[in-house]
Design brief:
The chain is of the alpha+beta class and about 500 residues long. It folds into three domains: about 5-175, no CATH class; about 195-370, Alpha-Beta Complex (Sulfite Oxidase, Chain A, domain 2); about 390-499, Immunoglobulin-like, CATH 2.60.40. It has eleven helices and 18 strands. Strands 2-1-10-5-6 form a five-stranded mixed beta sheet. Strands 3, 4, 7, 8 and 9 form a five-stranded antiparallel beta sheet that branches. Helix 4 runs antiparallel to helix 5.
Length: about 500
């Protein structure tokens, strides 16, 4: 028999080896076949909406990294517990690795469009874990071990554990580097005719805060634990379902279609009042309406389900896509091919709707169906089927908790009500009267609107609050509501101390 402490260390080392080897094998079979990615994907797909909201609020755009770290921590704890029992009965250690393998294989094979060989990384990793556990148990001589034997065991376990961890991390890093960036870089974007190009930005919209969000700063929220890697040559879009004519189109065929270019602000439904899960970019692409009309929807097809290559779905009202707004299949963002993490080769962009019902990345299918017949990804998890963006506003300067000097202080920020537009922004200092802010010009009603207000600051602690009114006369509500189920509401307020 072995001591419990050494049994725990042996099992932990075996678990790390299993993961490290599995990650290395997944370089050959695809990143999505990694047991860590597969199990994490199952967790993401089945986690309650409340847990998802909590993860976004706490970890922001690092929620999936937190999930990966948490999964590893749980596995490590499981391995330690199994190792304690395996110290007396080795078979328990092997059974624990078998359970790990069964969960990993089931998760890998359950993923959308999983290849038949998706089980291979988990199986090979598990076999490596069994071999290492057996080897370490033979290195540790149990309760009668000499000090030298114990030191030899610790060295063996330590070197193996570190080596396996390095192997796993290096394999994960390499799999992310083996992407489609070279293919993306070779894309020659087609020109946009002058009559369908984006309107020029007014000079007044520059300098306050970036009117156009740089690609590297644009928020990232999706359900993909690893970024799908689709080449332009492999990509194709299938339009099917309740249509008179099914359509399949390749990437090159898409590039030959008439192009439009528009500034459009996208917002995540998980954005808290005053939050940063919103961005504005210049998008280039093909009108969705043109393709839908070509397919000739049948009666009752009131929903267009956009499907990602990883299986994610979003349901968009067909009427919205056909009402004249600039909904598009986007191929470019801010003058360059879509960044891979933002949906390369093609994604959906629909002004006026939250992303969970419209902004599908890595798009490969459009299915005409009905809301009565199909619930998309987040609708199954309790979110509202219709996701129009609410009228909101935010104070960007001064910062919450800032200490501006007494005298003239510029209060400024953005307001948005995509596809309705902003007609008024008002600011209140403490409990005073609402003051109308100056609105800066915008290229269209589909973007956020910058605003400014000069405030004569006096010494003391002050509370600044903002509210907006859209072009339909609807003023932003002060009723506080969380993001779930259809977007947060309330007025954004900050506090400052004027010396």
């Amino acid at each position: 028999m072995h001591t419990r402490r050494f049994g725990a260390l042996a099992a932990l080392t075996a678990a790390v080896v299993a993961l490290g080897v599995a990650e290395a094998v997944a370089i050959l079979t695809g990143a999505t076949t990694s047991p860590l990615v597969s199990v994490g994907g199952v967790v993401i797909d089945n986690v309650p909406a409340a847990v998802k909201d909590f993860a976004v609020q706490v970890f922001y755009t690092y929620d999936k990294l937190a999930l990966s770290v948490g999964t590893i921590a749980v596995l490590a704890a499981f391995a330690v517990v199994i190792g304690v029992f395996a110290a007396k009965r080795e078979i328990i250690g092997y059974a624990g690795i078998g359970l790990f393998a069964a969960i990993g294989i089931a998760a890998a094979l359950s993923r959308h469009a999983a290849p038949w060989y998706a089980f291979v990384p988990t199986l090979v990793g598990a076999l490596a874990g069994v071999a290492v556990l057996r080897w370490l148990f033979t290195r540790e001589a149990g309760y009668n071990a000499t000090p030298e034997q114990r030191r030899a065991f610790l060295r063996s376990a330590g070197y193996t554990l570190v080596g396996a961890a390095v192997l796993g991390l290096a394999s994960r890093w390499w799999s992310t580097r083996r992407g489609v960036e070279a293919d993306r870089a070779a894309i020659d974007l087609p020109p946009v005719p002058p009559d369908t190009a984006a309107s020029p930005l007014p000079s007044e919209a520059v300098g306050l805060a970036p009117f156009v969000t740089p690609n590297k700063d644009f928020y990232l929220i999706d359900t993909a634990l690893v970024v799908p890697q689709l080449t332009s040559g492999d990509w194709q879009l299938r339009i099917h379902g309740r249509v008179e004519k099914e359509i399949t189109i390749s990437y090159q065929e898409l590039l030959r279609r008439p192009m439009i270019e528009r500034y459009i602000t996208l917002a995540c439904v998980s954005n808290e009042v005053g939050g940063g899960l919103i961005g504005n970019a210049r998008w280039q692409g093909v009108r969705v309406a043109d393709l839908i009309r070509e397919a000739r929807p049948k009666a009752g097809a009131d929903q267009v389900v956009s499907r990602s290559s990883d299986g994610f779905t979003a349901g968009t009202p067909t009427a919205v896509l056909l009402d004249g707004r600039d909904a598009m299949l986007a191929i470019a963002m801010n003058g360059e091919p879509l960044p891979i993490e933002h949906g390369f080769p093609v994604r959906m962009v629909v002004p006026g709707l939250y992303g969970y019902v419209s902004a599908t990345k890595w798009l490969v299918e459009l299915e005409l169906t009905s809301f009565a017949d199909f619930d998309a990804y987040w609708i199954k998890r309790g979110w509202a089927a219709q996701g129009p963006i609410k009228t909101e506003s935010r104070i960007d300067t001064p910062r919450n908790g800032g200490k501006p000097k007494a005298g003239d202080v510029m209060i400024a920020g953005v307001a948005w009500a995509q596809h309705r537009g902003i007609s008024k922004v008002e600011v209140r200092v403490d409990d005073g009267e609402w003051q109308a802010a100056t609105l800066l010009p915008v290229p269209s009603i589909d973007t956020w609107r910058q605003w400014t207000l000069k405030w004569r600051a006096t010494p003391g602690r002050h509370r600044l609050t903002v509210r907006a009114t859209d072009n339909g006369g609807q003023t932003q509500t002060d009723a506080v509501a969380p993001p779930d189920p259809d977007g947060a509401t309330g007025w954004h307020s900050i506090e400052v101390d004027v010396p």
